[in-house]
Design brief:
462 residues, alpha/beta, five-stranded parallel β-sheet, 26 strands, globular, disordered C terminus, binds flavin-adenine dinucleotide
Length: 462
């Protein structure tokens, strides 16, 4: 009897999805190889366009792809990965409202579980900050902003109105800069529909621990981005850290306590928590792999993407956690698994960053492509063209192109889609905010613990 080779891929982000697609295509007519992809959501999220959803330029459904429509013969399981047993080559998944557990065995395992937000134990952040990582985050943010505009327009106290119209974004990496640029455009456009609100009450503040934002793009482009954002009335505080968030005040290392109901945290990530107990070598929590992307001492176990620590053999530094790298690693891991199954030679992962691009608000961007710097409209146009091409599936490309075309002629939609969870937490926030904003200064409401970890930059995308 010939046994089937079982390939199990965990995580359907850029790394896991592209590895599964490659393996699915390669073994489509091979009855002796079984490919299974497990992930928490049944869709693949195109993270580079998340901020466009927050800004109301695109809908969330435009930037997600149903995994089942992308795979041909591979099996997809929507489930939480509960634990991984590398020694006995088993994975326990748990799914459904009853959290039913199931065991999956593997011959080859691709670990592509990515990263999750790291709040560095800063007080109040995990409970109250909005993140910019999952598909629902920009939806939550956009609704929160609209709800605040509605509430502020009914508010009598100017100090409370100002606090409601203050938005703090933490982290001057790609996610933070793109989010603050998009949010600024959205709020300043949307406020035109609220005659009782004075646009001068709007405050958008970007807080960044480094000296210049977008450090991955170099000082010139970082300074350009800062100048453009400031021209558009975004306040930028460099050399500053967030210390805590009470729900109505963001405490900064500069000593300022910013009255606000909204903190968007993009200033730190950590590898998926389910990987933390694995008995293999790690660097900053990421799984160290050899040049062929295989985990040393565990043949047939591979890791790619944000959760993997892969040294660039040219620079001696780890490959950055970006989609650009995760996609290339995924294809290479697929090829090496095929080589391992067929007894052929495995090949090392060799790739150099092609370029990095970021938008900083309406029709403006910054980019470094193959060592050449671009800024302004041309960089923004390059960003849109390149990411439209990279977005999987023709249907979604068409939806996004249509969304962008409509956006040229019409202002963003300000319909509020209320979720029960958000409205409850928002009312709680606003009650505190109102109470606090009406009280005379100073009122110490936070106990700030000493920093135990230094927040690092967020994703460095391409
Ligand atoms: C706002 C934002 C903008 C970005 N912009 C860019 C950009 O412009 N260009 C670029 O190159 N990169 C960009 N990035 C970075 C890019 O998204 C990541 O580098 C890339 O997603 C990494 O892919 P991955 O497969 O390693 O991990 P992920 O994409 O994070 O995928 C991991 C998957 O595993 C799943 N998962 C995790 N834990 C479990 C579990 N226990 N059980 C089940 N499933 C689990 C997750 O739900 C997810 O589907 C951006 C990131 C963000 C957050």
């Amino acid at each position: 009897m010939t046994l089937r080779t079982r390939i199990l891929v965990l995580g359907a982000g850029f790394g896991g999805l592209y590895a599964a697609l490659f393996l699915d295509k390669t073994f489509v007519s091979d009855p002796y190889v079984e490919v299974t992809l497990v992930s928490r959501e049944n869709y693949a999220l195109f993270t580079p366009m998340l901020h466009e959803v927050a800004a109301g330029e695109l809908e969330m459904s435009d930037i997600v792809n149903p995994i089942r429509k992308m795979l041909r013969h591979a099996v997809f399981i929507e489930s939480e990965v509960h634990s991984i047993d590398l020694l006995n080559r088993r994975v326990i998944i748990s799914h459904g409202v009853l959290a039913r557990r199931q065991e999956l065995v593997f011959d080859h395992l691709v670990l592509a579980l990515g990263s999750e937000t790291n709040f560095f134990n800063l007080p109040g952040l995990a409970e109250r900050a909005i993140t910019m990582k999952s598909g629902t985050d920009p939806f939550l943010l956009r609704n929160r902003v609209i709800a605040l505009l509605e509430s502020a327009s009914l508010e009598e106290s100017e100090s409370v109105r100002r606090a409601m119209l203050t938005f703090v974004v933490a982290g001057g990496g790609f996610a933070g800069v793109e989010t603050v640029g998009a949010l600024n455009d959205f709020v300043r456009e949307a406020v035109k529909s609220y005659p009782k609100l004075n646009p001068d009450w709007i405050r958008l503040l970007l807080v960044h621990p480094g000296t210049v934002v977008l450090p991955e793009l170099g000082e010139n482009l970082g300074l350009y981005a800062q100048e453009k954002l400031r021209e558009r009335r975004v306040e930028i505080q460099t050399g500053t850290r967030v210390l805590g968030f009470s729900g109505n005040r963001v405490e900064l290392s500069s000593g300022e306590a910013v009255k606000t109901a909204t903190l968007i945290w993009t200033a730190g990530v950590t590898p998926a928590s389910v990987l933390s107990n694995l008995p293999c070598k790690k660097e900053k929590g990421r799984l160290v792999v050899d040049k062929n992307l295989e985990v040393p001492d565990f043949p047939g176990v591979w890791a790619v993407g944000d959760c993997a620590w892969i040294l660039n053999r040219k620079t001696g530094k780890p490959h950055p956690p970006t989609a650009q790298h995760a996609i290339r690693q995924a294809t290479q891991v697929g090829k090496n698994i095929v080589a391992a199954i067929r007894g052929a030679q495995k090949k090392p992962f060799l790739f150099s960053t092609l370029g990095q691009l970021a938008t900083i608000g309406r029709r403006t961007g910054v980019a470094n492509i193959l060592g050449i710097n671009f800024s302004g409209f041309i960089a923004w146009f390059l960003w849109r063209s390149i990411y439209l091409l990279k977005l999987p599936r023709f249907e979604k490309k068409l939806r996004v192109a249509l969304g962008w075309t409509l956006d040229l002629f019409f202002p963003p939609d300000i319909v509020q889609y209320v979720t029960v969870r958000d409205i409850e937490s928002l009312h709680e926030h606003l009650a505190h905010l109102r109470k606090n904003a009406l009280q005379p200064e100073p009122e110490e409401i936070l106990t700030i613990k000493p920093l135990t970890a230094i927040p690092g930059p967020d994703h460095s995308p391409v």
